[in-house]
Amino acid sequence: MAKYVYNLNFSTFDGSSFLSNIRENSTHHKGLVTLQRQFLSDICKRKKKPMFSVDEGMTEMRDAVSCKRILLVLDDVDSHDQLDTLLEMKDLLYPGSKVIVTTRNKRLLRPFDVHKLYEFEALNRDESVELLSWHAFGQDCPIKGFEVCSEQVAIHCGGLPLALEVLGATLAGRNIDIWKSTMQKLETIPNHQILKKLAISYESLEDDHDKKKFLHLACFFIGKDRDLVIAILNRCNFYTVIGIENLVDRNFVKISESNRLIMHQMIRDMGRDVVRQESPMEPGKRSRLWRSKDSFNVLIQNLATQTIQGIILDMDMLKENDIVRSSFSAIDFKKHKTKNFLNYPNPQRGQSKQKRFGFSPWHLSDAKEVTNELVLETDVFEKMHKLRLLQFDHVELQGSFDVFPKRLRWLRWSELQLECMPIDFPLESLVVIELQRSRLRKIWHGIKFLKYLKIFDLSHSYDLLRTPDFSGLPNLEKLILRYCTSLIELHETIGYLESLVLLNLKNCKNLQRLPDSICMLKCLVTLNISGCSSLEYVPMDLDKVDSLRELYADEIAVHQMVSTAEEVQPWNGFLRSWMCKGTICPKVSHISLPNSLVTLSLAKCNLSDDTFPVAFNSLSLLQNIDLSQNKICSLPKGISYLTRLQKLEVEGCEKLKSLIGLPNIEHLNVTNCSLLEKISYQSKSSSLKNLLVSNCVELVEIDGNFKLVPLRNTEAEMLSKLGLWNLAPMNNVMINLTSNILSYYRIHSKRWTPTRKTKKVVLQGLYQPGVFSTFLPGERVPSWFSSKFTKESCTSFKVPTCNSRIEGLSFCIVYKRSTIRLSPSILRPPLLTPPPRISPLAMRKAQGRPLRYRPVENKPYESTFDCPCITVNNSTQSLIWSYQPLFYGVPGGREGMMWLSHWKLENQLSSDDVIEVTVTAGDGITVMEVGIKIVLVEETKVLGKPGCEVASAERDIVNPFWDVNLVHASSKDTFSVRLPPTYRSIRAAHEPFIEKALERNMSDYN
């Protein structure tokens, strides 16, 4: 890519130099001096002359760049010395010079004044298949019969161009069987050429510390929570925080928005191959076993060695692949001590093990009909003195745990079948214990002293009745008991957990009380009691836990409750939510919540306006509130005073009619609020970034975005600009109106319904910033529109010279239904989303002519229907506006629909400007005719009839939605800019895409 940018632009500079493979070349004898000589030869257009030191080269480089506008590309930089040597003269660069640096380690760029940092993203599926096809078939798509295999290879490569190129070249000219065999091999042994190139990055890691940590991540922790990984690896003598940061800087890993570690699968495979090469033929001698097949074979054959540091064994996955059965057919059962504990299943746990486990050397054919379980002997772990990381799924052990490794740091054992942990199991060194979906009824007997334990996860342990004594867990930070549906009691010693940050009791449906000692938790940040439907007692002093930041109390109906002493205890008002379903809870006093709360969730709590128990006035730190699926009709009192509020969720509040006076929030979810009519804010300038608004069929106004009003209530001046002088004959006219809101706002909810509901209404006027529109039945464009066209999809004209100032443009589009669904050959993106990546070729093809449409499939018009889109290109001022209304009329049968729209442009449209207007037909419609009218400020009676009183156009218009100009991008902005959902303006695209990227990247040097 750097070479491509260089080749496109070097000719526009006074001098240019591309220094390639700096990492490799600098390792040669006098490598940096050689690079300096190359630079001077390129810039000064002279033969390379002798140079004896780096300092001498720096001096000459300073002189060379001070009087020339240059383009310099430094490719594959991997050390500060290289940058210091080759960019020491950066402050002397001539104005307009550009420097591009490519590196695997973005941390190297931090000391420099980097204008823009670009990270190349992986190719998507279509791009991957295209690149693979060029290298495998010599064309842009797979040949017939190879489509499926090509997609599989593309998915395996994860969008990595290097892998696609190598595998494409390797498979070129091979038959389909070779392709399939190659894919099977790649699942176990990655391609050597790819790994060899990727291993360069691994070898460039600073020390063994980062290398070993990377191997741990690649084998065990992809997709894991970052905090969990840090806790585990810190106890494995790693400096994990700085180590992960180093790996992030070098693009080995990324941190997701949910704080999880992400790694490209090719990088993962490279790391795992490093481990595999430790002992290619004997997995038991490797340091890490991440493949369940290898782990199973090592354990069942007792081939483990003391080099093993971590093991993953998922018996359920092995059974799905039939690996366990096939392994037993080749094993001497007596030799490996398995004969005595291979059994068929029996509903009675005490019956013969020879019937409990689905394996028998004399009757393997029945194995698929029974529950395949295998019990391993604990003594196979005796040699693993270095074992730190252990992940078991559906594994059963038998024997004494006295010989089990004593230095475990991480134990993840899901589907544990024991009712209590063995008394001799070595827990003392564990940092993280994860026993999800266990059969435990009791965790352990007595008190366990586990001073290193930080995270204890027992999620979905449905049989667990009580928690243990916590007094021996002084450093526990996270206790996760969600979906422990049989849990009836939390031990009183939970108050001794001085370091506890998270307590998750979600859906502990039988838990009846929280112990009073919970108020002693001075570090508690997050408490989740959602779904605890039997909870009857919560300590009154919980509001004094000043550390609490997040409280989740969904599906709990809040009531007022009187204690035995007849004292009001509002916090004890948590009762079963379904006890009062279908009714309104009685009016209650306000409950006291900690003033420190940042997040509060009270979804599905059966709350109404009269029974809302929370006084928000005192919760000044609140940023996130979830009131979804409650019976509120309006914004609860006090929320409007929350100046720090960023996110409000009211999804599924079916009685909600308005949200008036919202603070300046960034995220609002009103999905499925079927009665909601209006949303307004305290401030006129809203910072809303994400609005989820599906299925709000009554919504007619969002403050600052749009307002839908009956046409009879519209200003006469506005109507006159559209030629609507007398509305009396239209008072009883009805049209079918539908919403296009989903196309304008990003939808992230999984429950949104894309169906556009149409309703019959009187004629409506739609205000959006700078644009007014209305829809009414009509077959022809009125005669007063000066410019008309019918057959062509676009027209161009020159704005005539006139003495009056131009106020704007008026449009009339007549359209009808169509039975053919159309789709543009070059898609126009939604107005509030970033533009798609378009190749330079596609950009050039799209210039100067309308978008072409092709039939996609014959579908009845009822399935999909989109309003037309108007695009205005002012080529004189390099401005483009594109508009599609939020609401539009749906024509009935063979009748026509007339869309009248006026745009306020003012100083963005001048005499002699060359204008091109394009009308794009939406899906399911045909545009019949288009009319255009230039409106002047001095036209106080635009097309008015004698005697018709029309207000002056110079007068300020009261409607806040209208009194906004259509703004345009700055002259330096070469990409589309994000504007309100009524318009979008971009600079006309006359330059190749990559040149514009370079121009924006280096604009600060101009």
From TrEMBL:
Signal peptide (UniProt feature, chain positions): none
Name of protein: TMV resistance protein N-like
Domain NB-ARC stretches: 33-138
Coiled coil: none
GO cellular component, one term: membrane
Residue intervals of the Disease resistance protein Roq1-like winged-helix domain: 209-279
Predominant location category: membrane
InterPro entries in UniProt: Apaf_helical, Disease_R_plants, LRR_dom_sf, NB-ARC, P-loop_NTPase, WHD_ROQ1-like
Recorded topology in the membrane: Peripheral membrane protein
Organism domain of life: Eukaryota
A Pfam family that the UniProt record links to this protein: NB-ARC
A single GO molecular function term of this UniProt record: ATP binding
Localization per Swiss-Prot or TrEMBL: Membrane
Organism of derivation: Solanum stoloniferum
UniProt entry keywords in alphabetical sequence: Coiled coil, Leucine-rich repeat, Membrane, Repeat
Keyword Aminoacyl-tRNA synthetase in annotation: no
